[in-house]
Design brief:
Helices cover 73% and strands 5% of the residues. It is mainly α. The protein has a two-stranded antiparallel sheet with strand order 1-2. The C terminus is likely disordered.
């Protein structure tokens, strides 16, 4: 008698679990088939960008000076730590994020040039150029950057920091 109860409970639990999973799949497919679904998702993402609560790279709200300063220091420290560990790609990514929010990117690049190995600094310059090209591609109403500046033998696009800050400002508007 005891074995029958355990078997019945096991079967009931399996049936209930199967019904629940079927219910979830059915309503998820119904939700995704709704013509307003994608529109709602885009609106929610747009609202989040305006509020500064969500961003591609986690950049804080540009109106909050303290948040920018914390983010800048965090990214510099994390970048230096990763580079010291030999994780150059990830470290360069974090240093590039710090440069994007920096008030004086040219000065920061000069400091990084003296403190980083030449190959890592070259990776950083390439990453910044990639950010600049991406910024120009996203900003259809501004012309592409064609002139270049040279900092210690490495070419850096003119107006790179302006292009990045305008993207950040655009995301917050």
């Amino acid at each position: 008698m005891n074995a029958i109860n355990k078997t019945a409970i096991g079967i009931a639990a399996g049936v209930a679990g199967t019904i629940f999973i079927g219910y979830c799949i059915y309503f998820d497919s119904k939700r995704r088939a709704d013509p307003e679904y994608k529109k709602k998702v885009r609106e929610r993402r747009r609202r989040n960008r305006k509020n500064g609560t969500a961003g591609r790279s986690g950049i804080p709200n540009l109106n909050d000076h303290e948040a920018i300063e914390r983010y800048f220091l965090q990214e510099i420290q994390l970048g230096e730590t990763l580079i010291a560990r030999g994780e150059f790609e990830n470290g360069v990514e974090h240093l590039a994020n710090a440069i994007v929010v920096c008030g004086q990117p040219a000065r920061l690049l000069q400091v990084l040039q003296t403190s980083l190995p030449a190959q890592v600094f070259a990776m950083l310059i390439l990453k910044m150029q990639e950010f600049g090209n991406r910024a120009n591609a996203e900003m259809s109403d501004t012309p592409k950057i064609v002139a270049a500046n040279s900092i210690g033998g490495a070419d850096i696009p003119v107006g790179l920091e302006g292009a990045q800050s305008s993207i950040l400002i655009d995301d917050l508007e």
